[in-house]
Amino acid sequence: MKKVVDVCTRVEGHGNIKILLQKDEITSVNFDLEIFRAFENLLLDKRLIDVPRIASRICGLCHASQTITSCKAIESMYEVEPSNQSVLLRRLLMIGELIKSHSMHFFFQAFPDLFVILDKQPKPLSLNELIHFDPKLTSNMYELIKIGNEIVNLFGGRSVHLITPIIGGVFFSLSKKEINIARKYLQNSINNLKWIIERFQEIFSQFDPPDVYSLPNPAYMGMHNDEKYDRYNGLLRLAQNNKIIADFPVYKHSQYFDKQEDIRGIDFYLKNDQNILVGPLARYKIINDYGIDELQSYIGLFNKEWQNSILFSNVIRLIEMMFVSYEGLSILDDTELTQKNEINPINFLRNNEGLGMVEAPRGTLIHYYHVNKKRLIDKVKLFIATEINLPIIDEILTTQSQKLYERTGDFNQIKKQAQMIIRSFDPCISCATH
Amino acid sequence: MDIYSILSHPFRRKILLLLDKEGYISYTELMDRLGLETTGQLNFHLKKLGTLINKDKKSYFLTEDGKRVINLMNIDKKILAGEDIEYLDKVGSEINRVGVIICKCNTEISNLISINALENYIKRIPNVVAVKIFDNLCQEKNLEKITKWSKDNYLNKIVIAACSPKTHLHIFERIFDGVIDKVNIEIANIREQCCWVHLKEPTLALKKAQILIEAAVERVALQKDVQVKTVKIEKSCAILGGGIAGMTLALNLSRAGIKVYLIEKTPTLGGKIARWSKIYGMGDCSICLMSEMIGEVVKEKNIEILTNTEIEKVSGEVGNFSIDLVKKPRYVDEKKCTGCKRCIEICSIEKSNQYEFGLTARKLIYIPYVQSYPYAPVIDQEDIETCRQCRICERACNNNAIDLDQKFEKIRIRVGTKVIAIGADFYSELKPYNHNPQNDVIISPEFERILSADGPTEGKILKLSDGKPPKSISIIQGLGPFDYLAEYCGTLAIKYLESIYSQLPDCKINIFFDLNKIKKSTGFMLDPSDERFHYYENIEIIEKGNKKIIISDSEQYPSDMIVLNVNFVPNKDLKELRKTLDFTLDDHGFMSEETLASGIFGVGSIKGPLDYNSVISSSNDVAIKIISLLSNDYLITEFSGIEIKEENCGLCGLCILSCPYNAITIEADKIAIDKFKCKGCGTCVSVCPTNALDLNIDTTEKILKSIEVFSKFNLRPKIIAFCCRSCGYGAADEAGLKKLSYNPNIFIIKVPCTGRVDTSLIFKSFELGFDGVMIIGCRKDSCRYINSVDQVRQKVKLLKEVLGPIAENRIIRKSLSAVEGNKFAEIVNSFYERLSEEIKNET
Amino acid sequence: MKPNFLIESLTSCSGCISTMISLDIFPQFLDKVNLVRCSFMRDENNISENDIALIEGCVSEEKQIDILKNIRSKSKRVIALGTCAAFGGMLALSTVKEAEPISNYIEVDGIIPGCPPPSKLLGNCIIRLLENKEIILPEKNVCADCEFRTDNIESKFMKRINKLMPREYNLDIENKDKRCFLERGILCLGPITRDGCESKCIKLNLPCDGCMGPIKNDFTSNAINFLSTVNLAKGLRKYKGIFYRYSKPKTKR
Fold this sequence. Notes:
The structure holds 3 protein chains of 3 kinds. By secondary structure, chain A is an alpha+beta fold. Chain A has one domain (about 1-430): Cytochrome-c3 Hydrogenase, chain B (Orthogonal Bundle), CATH 1.10.645. Chain A is built from 14 helices and 15 strands. In chain A, strand 13 (about 355-360) and strand 14 (about 365-370) form a beta hairpin. In chain A, helix 6 (about 135-155) runs antiparallel to helix 7 (about 175-205) and helix 7 packs antiparallel against helix 11. Chain B is of the alpha/beta class. Chain B has 7 domains: about 5-90, Winged helix-like DNA-binding domain superfamily/Winged helix DNA-binding domain (Arc Repressor Mutant, subunit A, Orthogonal Bundle); about 100-225, Rossmann fold (3-Layer(aba) Sandwich); about 235-240 and about 260-325 and about 410-425 and about 570-635, FAD/NAD(P)-binding domain (3-Layer(bba) Sandwich); about 340-405, no CATH class; about 425-570, FAD/NAD(P)-binding domain, CATH 3.50.50; about 635-695, Alpha-Beta Plaits (2-Layer Sandwich), CATH 3.30.70.20; about 700-840, Rossmann fold (3-Layer(aba) Sandwich). In chain B, about 35% of the residues lie in helices and about 20% in strands. Chain B has 28 helices and 39 strands. In chain B, the strands form 13 sheets. Chain B has a 5-stranded parallel sheet with strand order 11-10-9-19-30. A 5-stranded parallel sheet of chain B has the order 21-28-22-23-24. In chain B, strands 5-4-6-7 form a 4-stranded parallel sheet, sandwiched between helices. In chain B, helix 7 runs parallel beside helix 10 and helix 10 runs antiparallel to helix 23. The longest helix of chain B is centred in the C-terminal third of the chain and has 22 residues, at about 820-840. The longest helix of chain C has 13 residues, at about 60-75. The N and C termini of chain C lie far apart (about 50 Å). Chains in contact: A-C, B-C. The interface between A and C is large, with 65 and 56 residues.
C-alpha cells in the first residue's frame, strides 16, 4: 500500500492530507491530524475550580465556548444556576467570539478559495493580493475581526483565554459605558455585514457551486431552544432532509452518540449510519429560519445548488454573524444586564459527574467530567465539533479524489482540491487535536 | 628600523607605555585609549612598532624586545608620553588573566596524581595564562617568587589548586596582599576533597582534580569588582542597662578612653544586685559594693549616665550608629534637689514598693532606695495624673525642684557600638506553689530583702506573718521553665545556709532539688550525704491549718517559712528590643551570642542565668572586644553580601520574609538593604523571583558555571553536593583530613549557607546529567544564619512532595557538624550505592 | 526591502496568532513585511530564508524538532511567541505528553511571553522587531504594578493559603476586598510571574494565574521556592495543577 502525504495549509493549526493508494487506485483520502494533545489526560486529577481555565487552552479561537461549556458542566455538578446577568454576559462573550472566528475564517481561508472554486482566479489570492483585492472589503472584514475581539475583551477581561467566566457566573460587573461601546460595535458590525453580504452576492451568487462541494445528504446536528436559534441553552436536535431524527437534552446524548475515553473520534448510533455535520450550516438547517426577514431574504438570493453545497456555509457564516449582532443588540437592551451582578457560590458538590453544552462557532461542543471522592477529576470526555465533522470530510475527500483521479490522475490537483474541501468545512485543528 | 624613528611618534610611545603598564590590551581598547577614529591609523602605527609588540588571539602585548626598549631607555615616561597622561590612571582590564598555582603539598598531591597531566590540562583552559607549580606553597619563602611571577604575567586573578580554603586561605591571601584582590583568589580544593579521599583511584582523582581546577578558573573569571566601604569610627559606646554588668563594662571602656552612654530604663543605677543581701564569696554586703561602684561610675568623666531613659530607634552601621533616646520625665530636677525628702514626707498616697518586691509600701513620690543614684525623688509615669491633681509636694519643695509638668526629652547620640545589659527577669508563674509573703511562702528576691540590713526586717530572719523567727525553713531550688538548674543554684544554697545558720543556729533547714534537672545540668556538685539536701521527683506544698508542709516524693517536711528560689527567665523587654536592635534569641529565649550582628554585644544575664563572677568576667571579655573594635580610626569593609538591582524589583517582599537578619526593607516603594546587617547567606537570592538580588561574590552565575563544568565528568551515577561553608564543607574537609575514602563521582559546591540552594539549582543539576543532589548544611540549632537551614529544608520537603518518588530517591538533605567527616563519607557512599542500584534497575 | 517573516505553529491552541491578527497594527504589519510561511494565512509552505521567525506552541512531537532546526538554520532571529513556545505552556500539566519550550532544542533570540501575550506588549514587540531592535520585556514581577500590593510582610505572608479562587464573590467594585490575595489566603502567583499584563486578572479581583511565565529560572522551581516560604495548605502541596502550570522541569535522566 502506498501512502501520499501532503501538508494542509491555510488552516488554523497543522493537518495533513493522507492519500492511500492500492494498485493504482485511491482507497481513501483522510484529513489527518498529526498532533494529539490529550486534554482529557491533562484535566485528570485537577480541581474543578481550575478546570475552566485549563479547558480554555484547548482552542485559541473558540476559547470562550470552551470555558463556558466547562463552567456549565461543573455548574451542573454543583447544581448552581448562574444569575441572569451572568448568562447574558456569557451570551455576549460567545457573540464576540463567533464574530471574530467567522470573520477570520472567511477572510483568510474561505474567500481566497471561492475565487478558485468559482473559476474567477486560477489560483488562490496571495496575502497581498487578497488585501488589495478590494480595500473596502478588506477594511470591513478587518473591522469585523476587531469588533469580535473587542467585545470579548470588553466583557471577558482579555481577548483570548478569558478571565471573567468562572464557575457560577461571570465575574464582571458592567456599567453603562461598556454597554454603549458594545452597542456601537454591534451596530457597526451589522452595517459592515450588510455591505459584505451584498458584495459577496454581487461577486459570487451568479455562479453555481460545483458538484464537488455538494453535501452527501448528512444528518445535521445542532442546538435549538423551542425551535429558535440558541447557542447557549436548549435541546440537541438531529435532523435529515428537514425531518427530525431526534430531539434530546444533552444528558441523554449517550443514546445517540458517545465517546470512548482516551480514544479519538465519536461514535454515533444512528440507524442509517449517516454522517453527521455540525457547525453554522447545521444550525441553520435545524431551525430553517432565523426569524428575521432581512436575513431570510439574503438567504433567498442563493439558489438550491448553493443551499445544498458546503460552500453555502460561507454565506451562512456571514448571515449568522449578522444574526448574532442583532441578538447582541437585544441583549444590550435588556435592563437586567445593568443590575448588580452576583455569583452564586459553589459549596456542595451534588453530583459526581456533569455535562455542559454550547454551540461553539464551529458546532456543538460538549464537556463531560466525573470526579472521584477527593473531588479531583478522574474521567473526562470532550465532544468537539471538528471531530464530529471528520468522517464526513473524509467521505467527501475520498469520493471526490477518486473521481478526480479517474479523470486526470494528477496528484497535485487532487491535493489542491482536497485542501479546498477541507478548508470549506472550517475545521478547527486546535480543537480537534485537543 | 632604528628605535629612535619608532619612538619618534607620540602615539607609538603611548602604545608602548600602555602595554608596559597593563600588559595586554585588545585592538578596540587601544583605539579607545588612543582616541583614534580610523583603524588605518592604528594599523600603521602597529606595523611600525614591528618586533617590539606581538599579538595573540585577543590582545597585543610587549615582546621581550619591547620590554627591553622600555627598560633600557629608562626614560622619563612623562616626557616621552607627551603632555597628558591621565589614561595611565585607569587600572584593571576587562580581560581575564588567570594564573593557576598547583601545590604538590610535599608530595601529598603529586604522589597520587600526575602533576604534568594536570598542568597540561589546565594550560588548555581559556583565560589561563600561566601555570606555576610549587612543592609547598604555604611556606613564606615562596612569597617573593609568587609576587614576581604574577607581576611578570600581568595576572589579575589567581586559582590555587591546593588544600582546603579552610586550611590555608588566610596564608594565601596574605601572600597576594597588594598584588591580587582577595575576591579574585579562588581555591580548588584538590587535597582534602580529592586526593586524600580517592587514594585508591588515582586516574579518577586526576580527572576530578582537572575538573575542580577548571571550575575554579571559570568561577574566578566571572568575578566582578566588589565595593569597598570605609566608615569613620565613632569612639563611643552605648550601654543599655545600668546593672552590675553594664557598670563594669562602662568602667572598663571609659578607662580605655571611650565615651560611654550608660542608659538605664529605671530611675536609678544599680540593677538587681543592689537589692541583694550579699554576694557569695565576696564577704561584703552587696549594696555597699554597688554604691562603691556607682561612685566610681559617676566619677568617670567619660561616662554619661542617662537614667529613666529608653531607646527609640537605631540607625547606621557598625562604627557609626545613631541612636534616638527618650528620657522620661522624673518630675524632679536632680540639680536643684537637695535630697531633703520633705516632699516624700508630705505626700499622702501610698503604693507598694517595687524595689522591695512589694513587701513594703512607698509614697507616690519616692526615692527608690537609700543608695540609689541619682539620689533624688521620682514620680512614676503611671502616677503623674494623680499627682497633678494634688501638687502638694510641688508647693512643699523649698528649692522649686519639683516640676510636675516636665516633658519627655528626646536625645540623639552617635556611637560606634552598642551593648545590651538589661539583665533577666524572675520566673513568675508561682500559683502551684501558693506564693504569698504574708503566709511566709516567699520567693528568693523577697528572702534577699529579708536578709538585707536595709530590708523590711532590717536583716533579721523573721516570718512576715507574725514577725517571729521561723523554726524551720524549706528552700525549693531552681523553679523555672527550663529543664536544667542554673549554675549558681549550688552556691546560692550554701549562701542561704550560711546566712540562716549565722542568725538561727537551731533552725531546721531543708533544701530541695529537682532530680531531673540535676541530671541535665553539668558541673553541678553538692554533697549528696548532707542530710539537709533533698532530691525530689515530685514536690507539693500543702497547708494544714496554719502549718505548711512540703511533700517531697511522699515524705513530709513541715516548714514555718518556705523560700521559692526562682530562676532567671529571659527579660520580657527582649522581644520588644529585637525590633530596634539586631539580635536573635536562643532556644530558651535568652539572647543568642552566635547570631549577633556586628557592632552589637550582650553582657550579663541577658544571655542566660549567670552568677556575679560570670557576669563580671563576661563584661571584661566584651570590653576587650569593643576596645579592639573602636581602636581603629576607620573600618574598611569589603562588602560581601547581597547586591540589589532596583530596576528589576517588583517589591513582592519574599526576600524580606526570608532574610534571617531583617536586613532588607521596603521604604517609599524602594527596596533597600542594610549592608551591615546583611551577612551574605544568600537565602533571599534563592527566593527572589526576578533578577533583583544576587550575592556579589558567590554569584548564581558562578554556581551554575560550576555545575556545568562538573557535568563534564562522565561516569554515572554522579552526584552534586551543595555544602554550606561552615559545616557541610567543613565535614567534607574533615573526611579528607581523616583520609576516609568515598566515591569520586561527587562534586562539592561551596555555598555560603544551604539556604542559598534553590530549587532551580537542583533542577539544573538534574538537567545537566547529575543523578543525585546532596545538600549538606548545619544542624538546626547551630546554623550560622539563624533559620536559613530551615528554609532549605522547607524547599526540599515541598519539592519532594511535588515531584514524588523521583525526587525522593535523588535528593538528600542532611545536617552535619564540621567534625563529622566520617558521616559525610558514609552518606556519600550509601547515596552512591542507592543511585547505582536505581540506574541498574532502569536499564 | 521588506523583512521576511516566518510564523510557525507547533503544538498550540492558535491563541497567540489569533491575538496577533487582531492587533491594531496587524494590517500595517502585513503591508510592511513579506510573510514567507504562515500556515494560517498562506498557501506556500516552504521554510525559506527569513529575517525573523515567530514560533508559537511547544514541542511535543519528535517531528517538530527537525522543523525547528530547519527554521533556526534559515532564520536570522528566532522569537518564541507565547508561553507555550517560551516555557512549555498549559500542556505541561499532561502526564502523557511532553511540552517543551523551543529553547530546549534551538537557540532563541527572544521571547514574547503570555497566554496569550498581552496585546500591548505584543504590539510593542512587533514594532521593535520591524525596526530590527531587541525585544524589551518588563523585568519586574506582577506585584510591581498590583493595586493590592502591601508592604506589610507579616500580614502578607503569614496567612494560611488554602484557596485557589476567592470564595466571597463580591463583585461590587466599590466595596471589593482590596487586600493582597495572599493576605486573604488565596494563592496568587503574582510574585513569581513577569509583569507586562497590566495585572488584568487582579484588577478584576481574581488572583494571578502565572500565565506570563517566570522572569528567571523555571516556573516550577520558582513556585516551589515561593510556596515553601509561605504557609501552604496541605491539600495544595501535592497539587500538580499549581506546580506544573505553564512549564514542567526536566528531571529525566
